[in-house]
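Open question from group meeting: does this chain pack into something compact, or does most of it stay loose? Before anyone orders reagents, we agreed to write out a predicted structure and look at it together. Recording both the input and the output here so the notebook holds the full record.
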Amino acid sequence: MRCRAAGPVSLIAVVTIAGLTWIGANTGGGEQGAAPSMTTSAPAPPLSSPTAPVSPSIAKAQLDSLDVKGRAPKTGYDRSEFGQAWTDDVNVPEGHNGCDTRNDVLRRDLTAITVRPGTRDCVVLTGVLVDPYSGKTIAFVRGEKTSPAVQIDHVVALSDAWQKGAAQWDKAKRTDFANDPANLQATDGPTNQQKGNGDSATWLPPNKAYRCTYVARQMEVKARYGLWVTTAEKDAMVGVLSTC
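Structure tokens returned:
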């Protein structure tokens, strides 16, 4: 996505660093409808997928750096408080690259992709997702009825962020947060719906092999943006890290 200035995150050394995104934006990404018959293979390599192993000691240190507070009220929360869904007008990695955030993440996380001609290799028409959350292999086909099979998850849910510090941010920072690839993951649609706005105390990926990476990504994002965790959330994260 965009300026290609992104670097690897500090917590997961080789990971480049997605809740629940608004379903309307998630399913179409501004490009709904049946895929045209004419396609072309995308020549540009996908962005690195955030699936690397986690160092438990580094992750624990990251967790200990986070403030622990109670959850603030959800008063005033609305998806629109985090800007236009999947806007390219953000100051995060891949920002201002001429492609919307949803398609940027699809290009990063899917393999064997084809793209719509005339979109400068932006709009993904088909691809294959090996979903880290569920462990399923999903064939993605862009279309009004088929796009919801693959959704883009905010690893730290927007509502969760709102109640743990983001309500005090300005609109520009919230928009950056909602489109930061470090906080985004293409995943199985039903699994994304099950997660809802949950934090680690209320939801973890069904694929236990990915849980260490998942909570480590949450910690990294929260540390980067200055969000806090609740006591229950921290306890759940500690429990996951003890298995890594």
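Observations to bring back to the group:
Residues 1-25, 27-48 have pLDDT under 50 and may be disordered.
The helical segments are 23-28, 56-64, 101-109, 158-162, 171-179, 189-195, 211-225, 231-241.
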